[in-house]
Amino acid sequence: MPELPEVETTMQGLIPHLSGTIIQEVIIRQPQLRWTIPPNLNELLALQKITKLSRRGKYLLIHLEHGTLIIHLGMSGSLQIVQASKTSTRHDHVDIILSDNKVLRYNDPRRFGAMLIAGIDPFQHPLLKHLGPEPMETDFSGDYLKKVAHKRRVAIKSFIMNSKVVTGVGNIYAAEALFLAKIHPLTEAQNLSQSQYDALAQAIKQVLQSAITQGGTTLRDFVNSDGKPGYFSQKLQVYGRAGLPCNSCGAVLHSIVIGQRSTVFCAQCQH
DNA sequence: ACGAAGCCCTGCAAGC
DNA sequence: TGCTTGCAGGGCTTCG
User: Fold this and answer.
1) Considering only residues 180-219 of protein chain A, which place a Cβ less than 7 A from any atom of strand C?
2) Residues 6 or more apart whose Cβ sits within 8 Å of residue A175
3) Active-site position among A8, A56, A58, A176
């Protein structure tokens, strides 16, 4: 499923195809995503020039002359640049037809994704307005986490998956970062020491950066914008490895449920 | 204000 | 083999 690294990889892959391009037409085959796609999306986007692309958490932002297209890939969404002649298949919900006979095609089997319109300043949009810091930026740090965690009794794993605390850390990388920082996922957020938070912030940055460098994790249905899979999945230490031996100590990895999310960890290494 | 649960949806795997 | 059932998952929304 697309996590932050996949969104970043997708954006980087799309930039050369989209920057400066003028949108010709938008075809919506299935408007029922996480939220219904605005019915007048075509009227809003047609003949507008794409000025730049950016990312906020897992939200991909396509900046236009008179507004912003917000895209979220949910857990099974993908974007690809295809030739206009290529026949659409099942779950190809939206085509954004570009000027040079190319199409930006949105596919999302589970339809947990979203495609919405915001103004010129997308950060005023309700979905983006209250997001926490970007994990890769310098304002996200152990100091910041320790401060925000004051009197918070929620499990640390849920805490770092809360988009108001930090945006874009999903289930896979939360588990990986906690393993790397040697922190038990059920620890109450308020009980982590400063040095643990320093290690955790560092670990989050490291796992995300590593995945971005690798080109994004490939799981079930993610394909990056070139149609090539990423290769990070083989590096995962705990996610999807319940019952298998810990790569560090050899103990059998445990699987528990935290906040309705499966969580794999090493009881030996993580305290 | 905080934390837990609910919800949207399809593909896949396991069980019968 | 084919059907049924259960589960996974992002993250906003609702409930307590």
Assistant:
1) none
2) A157, A185, A238, A239, A263, A264, A265
3) A58
Cβ-contact A42, A26 below 8 angstroms: yes
Helix (H) or strand (E) holding A8: helix A4-18
Q: Which two tokens stand for residue A56?
A: 């906020």
Nucleotide with smallest C1' distance to residue A259 CA: B4
DSSP string over A85-128:
TSPP-TTEEEEEE-TTSEEEEEE-TT---EEEEE-SSGGGSHHH
**Is residue A58 among the annotated active site residues?**
yes
* Residue A122 pLDDT: 93
CA distance A245 to A96: 46
Query: Count of CB atoms within 10 A of residue A234's CB?
Result: 8
Mean pLDDT, contiguous 10-residue spans, chain A (271 residues): 86 91 96 92 95 95 96 91 90 93 92 93 92 95 96 95 94 94 95 97 94 62 48 73 92 91 93 94
Q: Pairing mode, if any, of strands A114-118 and A254-258?
A: unpaired
Tokens of A231: 């290769």
Owner of token pair 């099974």:
A76
Q: What is Dmax (Cα atoms) for chain A?
A: 59
Q: How many residues does this entry show for chain A?
A: 271
Angstrom CA distances, A11 to A157, A168, A229, stand at: 27, 15, 15
